[in-house]
Design a protein that fits this description.
The complex is a heterodimer of chains A (260) and B (311). With 260 residues, chain A is α/β, with parallel strands linked by helices. In chain A, 33% of the residues lie in helices and 23% in strands. Chain A has a 6-stranded mixed beta sheet, with helices on both faces. In chain A, strand 9 and strand 10 form a beta hairpin. Chain B folds into 2 domains: 160 residues, no CATH class; 77 residues. About 2% of the residues of chain B have low confidence. The chains are: A alpha/beta (260), B alpha+beta (311). The structure holds adenosine-5'-triphosphate (ATP) and magnesium ion.
Chain lengths: 260, 311
């Protein structure tokens, strides 16, 4: 499936068709596997959102508000308990299991806990997205080496993730998410473990994907200052309820690290 | 030399197999030696037992064949009347001229005396007083049919009263017994195969459980189910092949030892028929392949089930 080609007739008709759309989405976690006496958590409460193609969005809210849960729905790790999720104009409920992998390949994910493959060195970790696409080493070798240089880890190409610092692992996680140039990049706290300078570099890397590829970007963060500085649309979430702003709201009182 | 190797590696056939076994790339799922070792041992032992069961079945088949063909290639004629020496010789001649008969002989007084000579002259002279044996031993061509009936007819036509015994009573028993033996060996083989497939499936599932994090990551990065299944399957195919080879080698060593013991003391039960031929060892070559295929199947099923649980 080539999403660009498949969507092009629709896109011409409606170029502003949302790239990601949630309609009345609720998500409940069952604490216990047993349905009868399990404690249930309503992580997302009737969420509506609409993200434009090529847009950059900051998702923000206090710890436990439901940021990661929202992103998990977006990168297809979970299905909503109720409501409708549309990606690239396609209702995911109408997709068969065989179509999902191709959709996932259009989505790059930076996990909050990195989720690098612990037994693979940096090179092999960055090669994973290519290999799941069935590509041969000669097709991706240069891309991997280049990107490793970009994140300043060329000299650690043969090391395992466990030998890296948290910030270094984070850089690799971001590199793995962007390396196949996905149309939607979802980053859960991508700068949580690095100093501001490295944080800017990483955001820069993510923004390059937006500039050159027109990818839609969603960045979850606690960082009040970063959201303000970016001046981009904001998805603010608190206790599972989401509000979408086109520009950063002046009162972000519920930010995790709000200093004001 | 280098050129030669690069040619081999580029050979599509080689590439197919290296892909099937996952030996040309870094494994995307971690290989856990601690988990693989006990399983390798179990599969090796199962495979060795399987080889022994298969070879025993082969021995059983061949022994039964040897016994039945031996019985079928001979029959006995009891001449009831007239049973004087001249007539018996005439009956032997008639028998020899019948189609399908390879040899026929009666036990003459002289031959009997010759046979008993070693036991002392007295026993030989005793024979003169005994009635003449009236049995004719007949050797048959291996693919003769209905010779018994023909002999009966020919001899009756010449005025003999005879009873032809084609051993069908014994050979029937032997065929029945050997069928039971063959069945038992095949059943044992089947049971061993099921047990090894089940234990590999169990291990594959356990391995996937400890690697569920990695499986999940691959899944979220967009790996197709078939891709992840292949990763798991390749590992277990390799394990099955290696463990199968160990098992086959073990079985071969056991058989060689058993054979040496047989040569030193015990001899074959039948008349010099070797019950195992060297070419029976194809069983040992096929065993690792069967083990690999069974492992691949078991791993595939386990992986598919695990993936079904992911969104
Ligand atoms: N797998 C789960 N099972 C049960 N409850 C969960 C699960 N994951 C999250 N929750 C609950 O859902 C709520 C939202 O969690 P989520 O991880 O989305 O928050 P978050 O906004 O990402 O927080 P943080 O900023 O700390 O990462 C929390 O109350 C959490 O306890
Ligand atoms: Mg989170």
């Amino acid at each position: 499936m080539n999403i660009k080609n498949q969507q092009s007739p629709q896109d011409k008709k409606n170029p502003n068709k949302p790239w990601v759309k949630f309609e009345n989405v609720c998500l409940t976690y069952n604490q216990n596997q047993r349905k009868d006496n399990g404690q249930r958590t309503l992580a997302l409460d009737n969420v509506n959102l609409s993200l434009k193609r090529g847009g950059v969005y900051y998702l923000t809210g206090p710890s436990g508000a439901g940021k990661s849960s929202l992103l998990k729905l977006m990168y297809l790790a979970l299905r909503p308990t109720s409501g409708k999720v549309e990606l690239f104009g396609r209702d995911i409920d109408n997709l068969s299991r065989n179509e999902l992998p191709e959709l996932r390949r259009e989505i790059g994910v930076v996990f909050q806990d990195f989720r690098l493959l612990p037994h693979l060195n940096l090179f092999d970790n960055l090669a994973v997205p290519f290999r799941t696409r069935g590509q041969e080493p000669h097709e991706y070798e240069n891309d991997v080496i280049d990107l490793l240089g970009w994140i300043g880890l060329s000299h650690k190409v043969n090391q395992l993730p466990e030998t890296l610092s948290g910030g270094e692992q984070q850089r690799v996680a971001i590199a793995r998410a962007v390396i196949c140039k996905p149309r939607l990049l979802i980053a859960d706290e991508p700068t949580g473990n690095v100093d501001p300078q490295m944080g800017d570099l990483l955001i820069d890397l993510i923004m390059k994907l937006n500039q050159y590829r027109g990818s839609t970007i969603v960045i979850a963060t606690h960082d009040h200052e970063m959201v303000k500085r970016a001046g981009r649309p904001v998805l603010a979430i608190e206790a599972g309820k989401l509000t979408q702003y086109e520009t950063p709201p002046t009162h972000l009182r519920f930010f995790g690290r709000d200093k004001t | 030399m280098r050129f030669y190797f690069s040619k081999i590696f580029k050979n599509p056939f080689f590439q197919y197999f290296s892909k099937l076994l996952g030996i040309n790339e870094v494994a995307l799922l971690p290989t856990n030696g601690k988990q693989a070792r006990p399983l390798t041992i179990v599969v090796s032992i199962m495979c060795a037992l399987g080889c022994l069961a298969a070879l025993s079945a082969r021995i059983g088949f061949r022994a039964a064949d040897a016994w039945t063909s031996e019985l079928k290639s001979a029959l006995t004629i009891l001449v009831e009347a007239p049973k004087d020496e001249a007539n018996i010789l005439r009956a032997v001649q008639i028998t020899q001229q019948t189609k399908g008969v390879k040899s026929a002989s009666s036990m003459s007084r002289e031959k009997a005396k010759e046979l008993l000579k070693n036991y002392g002259a007295n026993i030989g002279s005793l024979l003169d007083e005994l009635p003449l044996p009236n049995l004719i031993e007949v050797g048959l061509d291996t693919n003769s049919k209905d010779t018994a009936k023909e002999l009966q007819a020919n001899l009756s036509a010449q005025g003999f009263k005879v009873e032809v015994d084609d051993h069908s009573r014994y050979s029937g028993e032997i065929v029945k017994t050997s069928a039971v033996l063959r069945g038992a060996a095949l059943l044992a083989l089947l049971a061993l195969m099921i047990a090894s497939v089940a234990s590999i499936a169990f291990a594959a599932r356990a391995a996937l459980e400890t690697q569920s994090e990695c499986v999940q990551i691959l899944h979220l990065i967009g790996a197709e189910d078939e891709f992840v299944i292949h990763e798991v399957q390749a590992r277990f195919t390799r394990l099955g092949l290696i463990a199968g080879a160990y098992g086959a080698i073990g079985a071969a060593i056991l058989i060689i030892i058993a054979n040496l013991i047989m040569q030193m003391g015990a001899s074959d039960l039948t008349s010099g028929t070797k019950l195992l031929r060297w070419w029976d060892f194809w069983i040992l070559l096929v065993a690792p392949l069967i083990s690999a295929i069974a492992s691949a199947l078991a791993a595939r099923i386990a992986a598919r089930d695990t993936l079904k649980e992911l969104v």
